[in-house]
């Protein structure tokens, strides 16, 4: 199997533990591959450094949402596969947040809407996985949806505390400022959103101090498998 865009190897390790056969990790960033045990290969998803029909299965996870031409990448996956291509991709436009802090769900939705409007790739394509695989020439396509829940609840760990700190400081929102402005949000609109975001963060910290804060973010993922 070939794991394209493996990053630091999260999916690669799962495949090696759960599936029979060898799993090769490929990524364009050699520094990320430093975190993955071999075999690893530095390579571009649009120009994979392998001959035709090298692998039984070519797979990626949360890669296509970051590519400007995902169908072209899938055609390249099909070129080096002699059997199947599988993708695991989210629909980031359908993420939901359930929180004990009033207003967090609505603010998260507003921030996501502005961010998505400014992104130049299709970060919602998970729900269109079937049509994208079909456009790449794959057959016998099967799609399954599953919802991934990210939950924060007592006892809180360091990552939970850091997330709350970034909300209260506005640092987390600030990293996406330019993307939001590219999506049509005005500077005044961003400042207003950030002010409300920081207050929400302070409310989160207050509830965390009382051990009452709970938050669940649900991200829909689509697993699509097609035959070459």
From TrEMBL:
Molecular functions (GO terms): S-adenosylmethionine-dependent methyltransferase activity
Domain Methyltransferase type: 2-85
Transmembrane segments: none
UniProt keywords, alphabetically: Methyltransferase, Transferase
UniProt key word Hydrolase: no
Keyword DNA damage annotated: no
Gene Ontology BP term (one): methylation
Protein name as annotated: Methyltransferase type 11
């Amino acid at each position: 199997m070939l794991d394209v865009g493996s990053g630091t190897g999260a999916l690669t390790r799962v495949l090696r533990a759960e599936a029979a056969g060898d799993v090769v990790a490929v990524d364009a960033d050699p520094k990320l591959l430093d975190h993955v045990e071999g075999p690893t290969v530095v390579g571009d998803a649009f120009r994979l450094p392998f001959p035709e029909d090298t692998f039984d299965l070519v797979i990626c996870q949360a890669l296509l949402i970051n590519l400007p031409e995902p169908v072209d990448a899938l055609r390249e996956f099909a070129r080096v596969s002699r059997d199947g291509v599988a993708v695991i991709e989210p629909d980031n436009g359908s993420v939901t947040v359930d929180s004990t802090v009033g207003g967090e769900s609505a603010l998260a939705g507003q921030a996501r809407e502005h961010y998505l409007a400014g992104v130049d790739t299709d970060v919602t394509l998970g729900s269109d996985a079937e049509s994208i695989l079909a456009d790449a020439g794959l057959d016998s396509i099967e799609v399954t949806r599953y919802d991934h829940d990210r939950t924060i609840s007592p006892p809180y760990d360091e990552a939970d505390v850091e997330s709350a700190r970034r909300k209260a400081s506005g640092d987390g929102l600030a990293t996406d400022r330019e993307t939001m402005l590219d999506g049509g949000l005005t500077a005044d609109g961003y400042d207003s959103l950030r002010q409300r975001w920081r207050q929400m963060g302070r409310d989160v910290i207050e509830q965390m101090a009382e051990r009452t804060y709970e938050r669940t973010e649900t991200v829909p993922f689509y697993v699509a498998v097609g035959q070459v």
